[in-house]
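In this section we walk through a basic example: taking a raw amino acid sequence and producing a predicted 3D structure, encoded as C-alpha coordinates. The instruction is simple. Fold the sequence below.
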Amino acid sequence: MREWKGKRYWLVGASEGLGRALAHEMSAAGATMVLSARTRERLEALSGTLPCPSEVLPMDVTDADSVRAAAEEAGEVDGLVWLAGVYWPMAAQQWDAEKAALMCDVNLTGAARVLGEVVPGMVRRGRGHVVLTGSLSGFRGLPGAIGYGASKAGVMSLAETMRADLKGSGVEVQLVNPGFIRTRLTEKNDFPMPFILEPDAAAKRYFAHMNTRRFAANFPRAFGAMFRLSQFLPDWLYYRIVA
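The resulting C-alpha coordinate sequence is shown next.
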Protein backbone atom coordinates (compact mmCIF):
# COMPACT_ATOMS: atom_id res chain seq x y z
CA MET A 1 0.00 0.00 0.00
CA ARG A 2 1.37 3.41 -0.94
CA GLU A 3 1.45 6.33 1.42
CA TRP A 4 -0.97 8.90 0.01
CA LYS A 5 -1.14 11.42 2.84
CA GLY A 6 0.97 14.45 2.09
CA LYS A 7 1.25 13.50 -1.61
CA ARG A 8 0.11 15.82 -4.39
CA TYR A 9 -1.23 14.24 -7.58
CA TRP A 10 -2.24 15.88 -10.84
CA LEU A 11 -5.25 14.09 -12.36
CA VAL A 12 -5.82 15.06 -15.99
CA GLY A 13 -9.31 14.18 -17.17
CA ALA A 14 -10.97 14.53 -13.79
CA SER A 15 -14.36 16.02 -14.58
CA GLU A 16 -16.31 12.98 -15.80
CA GLY A 17 -16.73 9.23 -15.43
CA LEU A 18 -13.71 7.25 -14.33
CA GLY A 19 -11.61 10.34 -13.64
CA ARG A 20 -14.22 11.80 -11.32
CA ALA A 21 -14.61 8.51 -9.45
CA LEU A 22 -10.85 8.05 -9.18
CA ALA A 23 -10.46 11.55 -7.73
CA HIS A 24 -12.75 10.46 -4.89
CA GLU A 25 -10.73 7.28 -4.29
CA MET A 26 -7.43 9.15 -4.17
CA SER A 27 -8.72 11.99 -2.03
CA ALA A 28 -10.30 9.55 0.43
CA ALA A 29 -6.85 7.94 0.79
CA GLY A 30 -5.35 11.30 1.76
CA ALA A 31 -3.90 12.69 -1.48
CA THR A 32 -4.08 16.38 -2.36
CA MET A 33 -5.53 16.54 -5.85
CA VAL A 34 -4.82 18.91 -8.72
CA LEU A 35 -7.85 18.50 -10.98
CA SER A 36 -7.69 19.24 -14.70
CA ALA A 37 -10.12 19.11 -17.60
CA ARG A 38 -11.50 21.78 -19.91
CA THR A 39 -14.56 22.81 -17.87
CA ARG A 40 -13.89 24.80 -14.70
CA GLU A 41 -17.46 24.47 -13.43
CA ARG A 42 -17.38 20.67 -13.45
CA LEU A 43 -13.99 20.66 -11.74
CA GLU A 44 -15.15 23.08 -9.05
CA ALA A 45 -18.23 20.96 -8.40
CA LEU A 46 -16.01 17.89 -7.99
CA SER A 47 -13.52 19.73 -5.81
CA GLY A 48 -16.28 20.71 -3.42
CA THR A 49 -17.14 17.06 -2.77
CA LEU A 50 -13.63 15.76 -2.03
CA PRO A 51 -12.61 15.09 1.59
CA CYS A 52 -9.00 16.30 1.22
CA PRO A 53 -7.72 19.61 -0.20
CA SER A 54 -7.85 19.95 -3.98
CA GLU A 55 -6.96 22.52 -6.61
CA VAL A 56 -8.82 23.28 -9.82
CA LEU A 57 -6.69 23.76 -12.92
CA PRO A 58 -8.62 23.98 -16.22
CA MET A 59 -6.56 22.95 -19.24
CA ASP A 60 -6.99 22.09 -22.92
CA VAL A 61 -4.61 19.23 -23.69
CA THR A 62 -4.77 20.00 -27.43
CA ASP A 63 -3.25 23.45 -26.83
CA ALA A 64 0.48 23.49 -26.04
CA ASP A 65 0.28 26.96 -24.47
CA SER A 66 -2.58 25.89 -22.21
CA VAL A 67 -0.64 22.78 -21.13
CA ARG A 68 2.53 24.76 -20.47
CA ALA A 69 0.70 27.38 -18.40
CA ALA A 70 -1.14 24.71 -16.40
CA ALA A 71 2.07 22.82 -15.70
CA GLU A 72 3.73 26.00 -14.44
CA GLU A 73 0.77 26.67 -12.15
CA ALA A 74 0.68 23.08 -10.92
CA GLY A 75 4.37 23.19 -10.02
CA GLU A 76 6.04 20.13 -8.51
CA VAL A 77 3.73 17.13 -8.15
CA ASP A 78 4.42 13.72 -6.67
CA GLY A 79 2.38 11.98 -9.32
CA LEU A 80 0.48 12.39 -12.58
CA VAL A 81 -2.54 10.34 -13.63
CA TRP A 82 -3.51 10.62 -17.32
CA LEU A 83 -7.20 9.94 -17.96
CA ALA A 84 -8.15 12.52 -20.59
CA GLY A 85 -9.83 11.06 -23.64
CA VAL A 86 -12.43 11.52 -26.36
CA TYR A 87 -14.18 8.83 -28.35
CA TRP A 88 -16.50 8.28 -31.28
CA PRO A 89 -17.22 4.82 -32.68
CA MET A 90 -15.95 4.89 -36.26
CA ALA A 91 -15.41 2.34 -39.01
CA ALA A 92 -13.02 3.00 -41.89
CA GLN A 93 -15.99 3.14 -44.27
CA GLN A 94 -17.42 6.11 -42.32
CA TRP A 95 -14.12 7.88 -41.69
CA ASP A 96 -14.60 11.32 -40.16
CA ALA A 97 -11.21 13.01 -40.54
CA GLU A 98 -11.85 15.72 -37.96
CA LYS A 99 -13.02 13.34 -35.23
CA ALA A 100 -10.34 10.73 -35.97
CA ALA A 101 -7.63 13.38 -35.73
CA LEU A 102 -9.11 14.78 -32.52
CA MET A 103 -9.08 11.33 -30.89
CA CYS A 104 -5.40 11.02 -31.70
CA ASP A 105 -4.66 14.59 -30.62
CA VAL A 106 -6.40 14.35 -27.24
CA ASN A 107 -5.77 10.73 -26.30
CA LEU A 108 -2.15 10.36 -27.41
CA THR A 109 -0.57 13.67 -28.39
CA GLY A 110 -2.25 15.36 -25.42
CA ALA A 111 -0.58 12.84 -23.14
CA ALA A 112 2.78 13.56 -24.75
CA ARG A 113 2.28 17.31 -24.24
CA VAL A 114 1.50 16.94 -20.54
CA LEU A 115 4.20 14.35 -19.90
CA GLY A 116 6.74 16.57 -21.63
CA GLU A 117 6.07 19.26 -19.04
CA VAL A 118 6.09 16.94 -16.01
CA VAL A 119 8.46 14.01 -16.55
CA PRO A 120 11.73 15.98 -16.96
CA GLY A 121 11.25 17.55 -13.52
CA MET A 122 10.54 14.16 -11.97
CA VAL A 123 13.73 12.78 -13.54
CA ARG A 124 15.78 15.68 -12.18
CA ARG A 125 14.37 15.15 -8.70
CA GLY A 126 14.80 11.38 -8.92
CA ARG A 127 11.24 10.64 -7.83
CA GLY A 128 7.73 10.56 -9.24
CA HIS A 129 4.79 8.37 -10.16
CA VAL A 130 3.13 8.39 -13.60
CA VAL A 131 -0.03 6.41 -14.36
CA LEU A 132 -1.28 6.25 -17.96
CA THR A 133 -4.66 4.97 -19.11
CA GLY A 134 -4.66 2.73 -22.15
CA SER A 135 -7.52 0.44 -23.14
CA LEU A 136 -8.18 -3.19 -23.94
CA SER A 137 -8.97 -1.88 -27.43
CA GLY A 138 -5.30 -0.96 -27.82
CA PHE A 139 -3.95 -4.51 -27.82
CA ARG A 140 -4.89 -5.26 -31.41
CA GLY A 141 -6.91 -3.68 -34.23
CA LEU A 142 -10.67 -3.88 -33.79
CA PRO A 143 -13.52 -3.08 -36.19
CA GLY A 144 -15.14 0.31 -35.65
CA ALA A 145 -12.22 1.70 -33.64
CA ILE A 146 -10.55 4.06 -36.12
CA GLY A 147 -8.77 6.77 -34.18
CA TYR A 148 -9.56 5.50 -30.71
CA GLY A 149 -7.84 2.11 -30.90
CA ALA A 150 -4.76 3.61 -32.54
CA SER A 151 -4.52 6.40 -29.96
CA LYS A 152 -4.80 3.96 -27.05
CA ALA A 153 -2.24 1.62 -28.59
CA GLY A 154 0.05 4.64 -28.75
CA VAL A 155 -0.49 5.44 -25.07
CA MET A 156 0.27 1.83 -24.17
CA SER A 157 3.51 1.90 -26.20
CA LEU A 158 4.41 5.23 -24.61
CA ALA A 159 4.00 3.74 -21.13
CA GLU A 160 6.06 0.68 -22.05
CA THR A 161 8.90 2.84 -23.38
CA MET A 162 8.85 5.06 -20.32
CA ARG A 163 8.90 1.99 -18.09
CA ALA A 164 12.03 0.74 -19.86
CA ASP A 165 13.81 4.10 -19.95
CA LEU A 166 13.01 5.17 -16.40
CA LYS A 167 13.77 1.91 -14.62
CA GLY A 168 16.03 2.72 -11.68
CA SER A 169 15.51 6.49 -12.05
CA GLY A 170 13.15 6.84 -9.11
CA VAL A 171 10.27 7.65 -11.47
CA GLU A 172 7.72 4.84 -11.43
CA VAL A 173 5.46 4.23 -14.42
CA GLN A 174 2.21 2.27 -14.42
CA LEU A 175 -0.34 1.45 -17.12
CA VAL A 176 -4.04 0.68 -16.67
CA ASN A 177 -6.04 -0.83 -19.54
CA PRO A 178 -9.77 -0.87 -18.76
CA GLY A 179 -12.54 -2.48 -20.72
CA PHE A 180 -16.00 -0.95 -21.08
CA ILE A 181 -17.02 1.59 -18.43
CA ARG A 182 -20.48 3.15 -18.33
CA THR A 183 -19.77 6.80 -19.20
CA ARG A 184 -20.96 9.49 -21.58
CA LEU A 185 -18.42 8.11 -24.08
CA THR A 186 -19.67 4.52 -24.12
CA GLU A 187 -23.25 5.81 -24.40
CA LYS A 188 -22.35 6.39 -28.06
CA ASN A 189 -21.99 2.64 -28.68
CA ASP A 190 -24.88 0.77 -30.24
CA PHE A 191 -23.40 -2.71 -29.71
CA PRO A 192 -23.28 -5.05 -26.70
CA MET A 193 -20.54 -4.18 -24.19
CA PRO A 194 -19.56 -7.31 -22.23
CA PHE A 195 -18.42 -6.99 -18.61
CA ILE A 196 -19.26 -3.27 -18.54
CA LEU A 197 -18.37 -1.60 -15.23
CA GLU A 198 -19.82 1.38 -13.41
CA PRO A 199 -17.29 4.21 -12.90
CA ASP A 200 -17.06 3.68 -9.13
CA ALA A 201 -16.28 -0.02 -9.53
CA ALA A 202 -13.72 0.71 -12.25
CA ALA A 203 -12.09 3.40 -10.09
CA LYS A 204 -11.65 0.93 -7.22
CA ARG A 205 -9.84 -1.49 -9.54
CA TYR A 206 -7.77 1.32 -11.00
CA PHE A 207 -6.76 2.61 -7.56
CA ALA A 208 -6.03 -0.91 -6.32
CA HIS A 209 -3.46 -1.23 -9.12
CA MET A 210 -1.94 2.12 -8.21
CA ASN A 211 -1.31 0.70 -4.75
CA THR A 212 0.84 -2.10 -6.18
CA ARG A 213 4.32 -2.02 -7.68
CA ARG A 214 3.22 -3.87 -10.82
CA PHE A 215 3.52 -2.18 -14.18
CA ALA A 216 0.30 -3.03 -16.04
CA ALA A 217 -3.25 -4.01 -15.14
CA ASN A 218 -5.99 -5.14 -17.53
CA PHE A 219 -9.57 -5.32 -16.30
CA PRO A 220 -12.08 -6.89 -16.07
CA ARG A 221 -9.61 -9.74 -15.69
CA ALA A 222 -11.31 -12.38 -17.85
CA PHE A 223 -12.11 -9.88 -20.60
CA GLY A 224 -8.58 -8.52 -20.43
CA ALA A 225 -7.11 -11.99 -20.76
CA MET A 226 -9.01 -12.46 -24.03
CA PHE A 227 -7.51 -9.30 -25.51
CA ARG A 228 -4.05 -10.12 -24.23
CA LEU A 229 -4.17 -13.61 -25.73
CA SER A 230 -5.43 -12.23 -29.05
CA GLN A 231 -1.91 -10.91 -29.65
CA PHE A 232 -0.69 -14.48 -30.04
CA LEU A 233 -3.26 -15.52 -32.64
CA PRO A 234 -2.09 -15.69 -36.26
CA ASP A 235 -3.49 -12.93 -38.44
CA TRP A 236 -5.70 -15.22 -40.52
CA LEU A 237 -7.45 -16.54 -37.42
CA TYR A 238 -7.71 -13.26 -35.57
CA TYR A 239 -9.34 -11.42 -38.48
CA ARG A 240 -11.65 -14.34 -39.17
CA ILE A 241 -12.92 -13.91 -35.60
CA VAL A 242 -13.22 -10.11 -35.38
CA ALA A 243 -13.76 -8.84 -38.93
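Looking at the output, two observations stand out. The mean pLDDT is 95. Residues 11 and 155 are 16 Å apart (CA to CA). In the next section we compare this with other chains.
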